Amino acid sequence: MVDGDVPERMQAAAFDEFGGPEVITLRILPVPEIAADEVLIKVWSAGVGVWDVYERQGVLVPEGAAFPIVPGSDAAGTVAAVGNQVSNVAVGDLVYVSAANHPKGGFYAEYAATKAKYVAKLPDGVSVEHAGAMPTDALTALAGLDALGLPAGAWLLIFGASGGQGHLAVQLAKRQGLNVIAVASGADGVALVTRLGADVSLDGHGDIVELLALIRDAAPTGVNGILAMAGGETLDRLSEALSNDGAVAFAHGVQPEPKKRPGVTVRAYDGEANPRQTQRLNELIEAGPFVVHIAETFPLGKVTEAHRRLQTSYLGKLLLTVS
Question: Ranges for the Enoyl reductase (ER) domain (predicted)?
Answer without folding.
Answer: 19-320
